[in-house]
Hints:
117 residues, mainly alpha, 5 helices
Amino acid sequence: MTSNISNILKSLKKEVAESTVYLSDDENEQFFRNKNAKYKVLDFILERHSMYLSKKVNIHNFESEFDQAIEILQLNTGCAEDLEILEMILDELYDKKIINDKEYNDIISGTAASRWL
């Protein structure tokens, strides 16, 4: 993995972590800040998947990058609101056939919020 991709993943990790602890008097602002940060992770996954499909990224690099991006989301999914956002992201990955039913469920199970399911 190139250092540029590593830096992108580090930046995404930091932004998502910061968004989950962001406090505001406006609950909608908190939700949208959290959602927007996590959707940047989705955008990263979709971009890398597109590059894999066009043979610009090999399968091993894509799988590694995908796993790291999903881990960012899993580590920052601890409440119902976080789970709602994660499910929206996973629905899109599922609809695009990037993940299957088992992977979808495994990702959910790997979150702190899964204890409530």
